[in-house]
Design brief:
The complex is a heterodimer of chains A (388) and B (275). With 388 residues, chain A is α+β, with helices and mostly antiparallel strands. Chain A is built from nine helices and 20 strands. Helices cover 25% and strands 32% of the residues of chain A. In chain A, α2 packs parallel to α5. The relative contact order of chain A is 0.12. Chain B has 275 residues and is mostly helical. Chain B folds into two domains: 61 residues; 207 residues, MetI-like (MetI-like fold), CATH 1.10.3720. Classes of the chains: A alpha+beta (388), B mainly alpha (275). At the A-B interface, β6 and α2 of A face α7 and α8 of B.
Chain lengths: 388, 275
């Protein structure tokens, strides 16, 4: 088990930074998720941790020991690849044993007959057999130990890859989108498996994904990245409730946080034509000098009420999605605007949740009631969160 | 209906190709087993005469066929082993590493194939003379290897390109050095292509004539290709002896090919479909 510290870690490709000035401090035993869209540098960062990619600048410390100059094998980290990267010419047993064989490896293990016998001897030693079989039992692979990877399903291959990582008892487990090749159902069950593995095996986990649901459900810490820069690093709940900027607000949560444009006028908040009293949790100091702010509200903080209700914002239903226990309703605001970058044309639709199977119809006039006590305020200019 | 005819036509075409390929061998066998008096008969014999089988015994008794075959086998095997050993690492480097002059090196390897053997005989003769490699099988192996290594390097490079880089990185994480990765992971994964490349090198060594004729002069070190050509005299050629030795010369190569063809076919088609 080990803590990981990254100090000013930078990676450049031909002078162009892919990862810029990353500073992270991950305590021992945490499950850190590196989250972000494709090309944000999260995999590059993971590969630098593993030693598969060199570090252009900065330091990587593993339990206080500098490791960025060490080869991958000297860092005591296991890596689970997106493509599983099993050795196709070896049985499941040999795949799992391989890291243990490499620990006792001599050059003459490459010789045809003698090498084969030596490797088999290690593989069949009681210590290694016991370890491999225990690992196989945890991962339900016992029946498949003598099969080749090509005869296994995607989920089974992924478990073999996990087994190969576990058997070494590494200080750190690194995982690069290990579930992205699996179907939705299997992904959910493997998600639970990996979380269980973290609980049972211990060790520090670093997990790369672009799926924020995976990040929120598995991670004990999340580092959300964009264009090679960490946008926010913290506990999932913190990131969900107090996003550092509008990018984080829109990235985390399904559906994402609504960002509604508002004006601050005489200590009052004006959204469209409606005025609201400033919520109690917001200090006047935080909003000083701000004429226009972005009000961040999660869909569950927006309630759909009958059109014309007092202290509401008027709008009309733009779309209804029924997802079972609740319905997602997109409401086009009549007099207010939103700041959702990804919406190029419609700059006034917010997302709200309605309990059960909603009977709302498209184009039906409604009103939105805001639970302002849950609001997060962002600067309209910089997109950064304004201190509460 | 059209499908059946297409199929029949295709089969006919395959059959014609097969006959064109096999008939010379068959004719060699028939000629070797034809009595000397009937060799130039107006109506040629299409079936071999088993009574003439003695010619094969005579070939071994009167002609040093066994020595020639042994020499050919040594040269072919040596060429194969050396070519694979020398071709694998450059193939890996060309496939995986980025270095200055990589393109030039690749082109240079190709360029060696543009030069005919006959053109290189004289300089090679001079170099081998200085290195005391003339009239040795080792020299012959070396000369042949120089010609096969570039081809084999390119064939193996193609196969190594197809090995997922993730598998190699997994091996690095698991504690393999660069050479361990090549020996323990890459080579087993490209084994079929390696077999195909081995066959190419083996046959090059087995069939080679120009170097074997020029660089080796001693009778005991003659390879079968040179020995066989030696039958062709200025005044007469013992046709059925030539054919008998020809058959003996061909058979080991055919047997070798049958032995490895399973891997060769797998190697030549490897990577053509998603695995």
């Amino acid at each position: 088990m080990a803590s990981i510290t990254l100090k000013n870690v930078t990676k450049s490709w031909g002078g162009k930074p892919a990862v810029s000035d990353i500073n992270l401090d991950v305590p021992d035993g945490e499950f850190l998720v590196l989250l972000g869209p494709s090309g944000c540098g999260k995999s590059t960062l993971l590969r630098m941790l593993a030693g598969l990619e060199s570090v252009s600048q900065g330091e990587i410390h593993l339990d206080g020991r500098r490791v960025e100059h060490l080869p991958p094998s000297a860092r005591d980290m296991a890596f689970v690849f997106q493509s599983y990267a099993l050795y196709p010419h070896m049985t499941v047993r040999r795949n799992i044993t391989f890291p243990l064989i490499m620990r006792q490896f001599h050059w003459w293990f490459h010789l045809p007959v003698i090498g084969g016998l030596a490797k088999r001897r290690i593989e069949r030693s009681p210590e290694v057999t016991g370890l491999v079989e225990r690992t196989a039992k945890i991962l339900a692979l016992t029946e498949m130990l003598d099969r080749y990877p090509r005869t296994l399903s995607g989920g089974q291959r992924q478990r073999v890859a996990l087994g190969r990582a576990m058997v070494r008892h590494p200080e750190v487990f690194l995982m690069d989108e290990p579930l992205s090749n699996l179907d939705a159902k299997l992904r959910t069950s493997m998600r639970a498996e990996i979380t269980k593995l973290h609980r049972e095996v211990g060790g520090t986990f670093v997990y790369v994904t672009h799926d924020q649901v995976e990040a929120m459900t598995m991670g004990t810490m999340i580092a959300l990245m964009r264009s090679g820069v960490v946008q926010q690093f913290g506990r999932p709940r913190d990131i969900y409730t107090n996003p550092a900027n509008t990018y984080v607000a829109r990235f985390i949560g399904t559906p994402p946080m609504n960002l509604i444009r508002a004006r601050v006028e005489a200590g009052e908040l004006r959204i469209g034509e409606t005025g609201f009293a400033m919520p109690a949790h917001v200090s006047t100091a935080a909003l000083r000098g701000q004429k226009e702010v972005l009000v961040g509200l999660r869909p569950e903080s927006l309630a759909i009420v009958a059109a014309g209700s007092p202290a509401t914002i008027a709008g009309e239903v733009a779309m209804v999605e029924h997802i079972g226990a609740e319905s997602l309703v997109s409401v086009k605001l009549r007099h207010a605007a939103t700041a959702h970058e990804e919406e190029e044309q419609e700059q006034s639709a917010v997302m709200a949740t309605a309990p059960g199977y909603s009977d709302l119809k498209v184009a039906e006039p409604v009103a939105i009631r805001l639970t302002l006590s849950d609001t997060v305020f962002f600067s309209a200019e910089t997109g950064e969160r304004l201190a509460a | 209906m059209r499908g059946i005819w297409q199929h029949r036509l295709r089969m006919l075409a395959v059959l014609a190709l097969l006959v064109a390929a096999v008939f010379p061998l068959y004719w060699m066998l028939v000629t070797s087993l034809t009595a000397s008096s009937d060799l130039f008969a107006a109506a040629p014999h299409m079936l071999p005469s088993l009574a003439e089988l003695g010619i094969y015994r005579e070939a071994f008794l009167n002609i040093p066929v066994a020595t020639w075959l042994t020499n050919s086998a040594i040269v072919a095997t040596g060429t194969m082993v050396l070519s694979i050993a020398l071709g694998t690492l450059p193939a890996y480097a060309l496939s995986r590493f980025r270095f200055r002059g990589k393109g030039l090196l690749g082109f240079g390897l190709f360029a060696t194939q543009m030069l005919p053997e006959a053109m290189l005989v004289v300089p090679l003769y001079a170099i081998f003379g200085q290195l005391s490699l003339l009239n040795t099988l080792a020299g012959l192996i070396l000369a042949n290897t120089a010609f096969t290594v570039p081809v084999i390097t390119w064939i193996l490079k193609g196969a190594i390109d197809g090995v997922p880089i993730d598998v190699e990185e997994a091996a690095r994480i698991d504690g393999c050095s660069q050479i361990d990765i090549v020996l323990a992971v890459v080579i087993p994964l490209i084994a079929p292509t390696l077999a195909a490349a081995g066959v190419i090198a083996f046959f090059h060594g087995w069939n080679e004539y120009v170097f074997a004729q020029t660089l080796v002069s001693s009778q005991e070190l003659r390879t079968a290709s040179v020995g066989l050509a030696g039958f062709v005299g200025e005044l007469s050629t013992p046709v059925h002896s030539v054919m008998a030795v020809g058959i003996i010369y061909t058979l080991p190569a055919v047997i070798f090919y049958l032995f490895v063809q399973r891997y060769v076919v797998a190697g030549l088609t490897a990577g053509s479909v998603k695995g």
